[in-house]
Design a protein that fits this description.
The structure is a homodimer of 126-residue chains. Chain A is mainly alpha-helical and 126 residues long. The first copy, chain A, has a single domain, classed as Arc Repressor Mutant, subunit A (Orthogonal Bundle). The first copy, chain A, is built from 6 helices and 3 strands, in the order H-H-H-E-H-H-E-E-H. Chain A has a 3-stranded antiparallel beta sheet with strand order 1-3-2. In chain A, helix 3 packs across helix 6. Chain B binds a DNA duplex (30 and 30 nucleotides) through helix 4 and helix 5.
Chain lengths: 126, 126
DNA sequence: TGCCTTGGTTACCTTCAGGTAACCCATAGA
DNA sequence: TCTATGGGTTACCTGAAGGTAACCAAGGCA
């Protein structure tokens, strides 16, 4: 009997799976963009909206709520008129965006290679 | 005139955006699980299928094809009977999974905090 | 009395990722 | 000839993500 298969890990997809969890966290369309926008410092709702190209009001609100819920973002309301709402990264949020940033810069460095791989794959399977 | 807004980056969502690209790459449901399963070494189709809990044959095939297309995974067919197909990480794939792993382990370390944040947010907004 | 501002909410609709299950192919062996 | 095995493909369907656009609320100001 070979011992190969014994050593291999099995990956579960229940909700305690850390892999599954982090992907679900930041794998949506806008979370990372918002996180990165807030790395520059606190910002207001409409400013974020114009800095993140293509995001709708609805998705900005919703994604900010989710990030706030997880403790990545702090929301502060200044009861002026008109009201001013500022969003900023918490320490947890800074940690997350730092970690994500490393991944993104890896991807950025290898972006061109990947594009070439894709192109030759597609040509070979045309 | 304040100089605040001048310094802030704008994030585009065109297809050259590296952020958008990496998220699209690995943000789907199964890519990371497959990558991590292959970190243990080359593996065969049906072995992967049983090690990655809950994945369907269709999604395993599809996700492996995508990973192969980008050059993260190498697919080798051994013309035996029945046929044997082995998948393994390329160097590029190893680099990616290493980078992703750092992010996942960050998430793993802060998983509990996030769960608590969520719980208290939900209680406050009940 | 309107209208402007910021920062939303809500209803509605479309798209598409992903699940299920049936089918395919080559060949070996009973 | 029937079945088994590995590694798929295909048709079909559903749920959820996300887009659009209309509406709201509080208050200042003209």
């Amino acid at each position: 009997m070979s011992s190969d298969k014994q050593e291999r890990r099995v990956f579960h997809n229940n909700e305690d799976c850390p892999v599954r969890n982090v992907v679900a966290q930041i794998g949506d369309k806008w979370s990372i963009l918002i996180l990165f926008a807030l790395v520059d410092g606190p910002d207001r709702f409409n400013s974020l909206r114009s800095r993140i190209e293509g995001i709708s009001q609805r998705m900005l609100t919703q994604t900010l709520r989710d990030l706030e819920r997880d403790g990545f973002v702090l929301r502060t309301v200044y009861p002026q008129v008109p009201v001013k709402v500022e969003y900023e990264l918490t320490d947890l949020g800074k940690g997350l965006s730092g970690s994500v940033w490393k991944l993104v810069s890896w991807a950025d460095n290898h972006h061109e290679t990947i594009r070439e791989n894709r192109k030759s794959y597609d040509e070979a399977n045309s």
